[in-house]
Amino acid sequence: MNFPLLILLAVPFLTVPVVYPLRRTPLAAPFAAAVAAALVGFLWIVPWPLSAARPDQNTLGPPLVLLGRTLRLTETDRWVLSVLWGSAALMFLTAWPFRFERRLYPIGMAAGGLWMLGLLLRPISLGTFFIGGAALLLALTLLGEGHGMEGATQYLIAASLGFLAWVTAAWAAEQATLNPGQPLWTTLTVVLIGMALVLWLGVWPAYRWVLLLFAEGAPVGAAFTVFLLNYGTWFWLLAWAQEFPWLSQLPGWSASLQTIGILMTLSSAVLALAERGWGAIGGYAWLAASGLSWLALGLGTVEGVHLSAWTLGIRMIALIGLAFALAAHRRMSGSTESGRIPLHHGPWVIALLLGSGMALMDVPPFAGFTARWALTRWLTLSHPILALALMGSVGLLGWALWRELLTPPKETTPLRPMPRSVVWFGIAWWIAELLLLFSGPWLGLQLKALAEAWIRVRLIE
Hints:
The protein has about 450 residues and is mainly alpha-helical. Helix content is about 70%, strand content about 0%. Helix 2 runs antiparallel to helix 3, helix 13 runs antiparallel to helix 15 and helix 14 packs antiparallel against helix 15.
């Protein structure tokens, strides 16, 4: 029995009944963040013995058998779960000053625990139910204090349909494994996975729920939802490729991921010009940034996987800044409606909105610029028109961002004072961005080694 792994899986669910009664007190956020941070420390402090000799099969400790199913923790899983719970801890602290984020703490812990079970559980068909349950549970974090009903409803529809697509795809993949040589099952599997990705990632034309989550409701809860879906689905897809190796060898596999990335990036940049409001534009910026990660993943090379993992990691800071700025904007205006805050009334709110928006667009001096520049340089040799479109998408999103800043308000509305926490959070956010920029080379080396391990076990080709 692998007791450390059992403790790791049980702690998030044991935390829920403790943090739920505390959700209306100031203790909920630091308690949930401390538990999430403790999980990260537990992953690295516990001496996990290697129980397999092959480099691509290194299991940390013996497999854990629960209800007849096998769960095993690998070195890659440890890295994945560390980023998951570390980001959750930052999200919990980000939501601390805002009363309308109370649902995030207990539901975030439960959703994170379900995602962890789904990622570690084999076979993939059973893990799909835990992943889908977490996605559906996240809808409750979006309601806030009675707001965000339309966005939460649209997300619930997309998550439900995506969950059905994942479950059916798991059944089709198992049929393809049992009946090799029949193209019907392989085609059906790829089509269903594509549908699930479109619904869960907000790919055009199923993108509206992402904008509504950012434009209304609880901003930090929305950020936690889109992060967990995007980041978790990225590794969830790799788990599929590990259990069904023939998936990554299909001729259209890489092309499908590239198409999803291109649609997310270019459509978001163009459609952003028709939107008004910080939340909607921020949602488009997140979609475009996520599309770049999926485009890099679709290249099917060590460098592509490396860039994709790099962009996913560094944009966490930008997403947190955007969520905090939108929450502060809502607290000052007292409404989820689009509105402009004068610079002299909320300078740090404006600085966070602009800074996080530019960080999501990968403009210098933010760390994401290195990944976008490398990807554009590689695409220039094979797809020069696409490379120019990627560069142009930054200009379109930038224009939508600055237009929102410069457009005069239609009417003057009374504003509440800027929260004091915005100043300290803003200083911490800009320091984190600078540290991320300077630590980029070291972090990139770690991710490249991880990408090489994935390629070595033929997860992506």
